[in-house]
């Protein structure tokens, strides 16, 4: 047999080397030795997309915050002002934690609690509010209930905020002071309930606090002759009846005033009172409480956005202290206004 020529041997070996090189290239192109890709949750910007600050589309300079009456019995919605900002939710929580800067009201949140963060998650209407560990020091159920309720009411007063999830140091906790916090909390059905039975039907109205300085929303039982099918009328009758004797609240409409008629058409409620409605005779505080309690009580109903007040069936230009009532009145922009 003829021996292989040296050139043939070299050519064969070259082909082997070439095949091996091609195999290496194939393996490398398959990614077997490529650098591992980061996990999805570690991708830059992924957390920022899911967790985002609660910002308004425009700057606002006021918000509704809930404090306590001086006796600690009732939550009071208060309009507070601040420098215009889009971080309205953050400012609202900070104002709530700081407490009212005015006599006649008390803070509802425990001392020492600070805000760590407030944010949304994508495609949700739940506000996450992260507070410091001092919140866990609350052991009294009544204090915890009022504090959490005030937080939920304050935040769900903002647009597009339907639920509130309270966190402590970034973590969900099962409860604080006996109040369950393991799931997002919806806005409470009532703010201050004076109903005596769980299944009792009621209506929300606004009375004065004990010092007659602040309007307090309370849910009271339907008065005699009122029905749940006509809640606006029931609300006015409840206003005229005044607060329950043991409530420590003050009526806003003069005793003896009667509702002569109520008509609701195209968003306008025309309320006809008897002449006793001006029995207070004067006093700007009494007049403001009369009008504001009526306006806030009636405009809570979606079918009403304006109120025309009549006295004995007639329009009057002014009330005794000079408040104009010759034209329909809209819901005031501010409730229990506090300028900080």
UniProtKB/TrEMBL annotation:
<feature type="domain" description="GerMN">
    <location>
        <begin position="232"/>
        <end position="320"/>
    </location>
</feature>
<feature type="domain" description="GerMN">
    <location>
        <begin position="89"/>
        <end position="177"/>
    </location>
</feature>
<dbReference type="Pfam" id="PF10646">
    <property type="entry name" value="Germane"/>
</dbReference>
<protein>
    <submittedName>
        <fullName>Spore germination protein GerM</fullName>
    </submittedName>
</protein>
<dbReference type="InterPro" id="IPR019606">
    <property type="entry name" value="GerMN"/>
</dbReference>
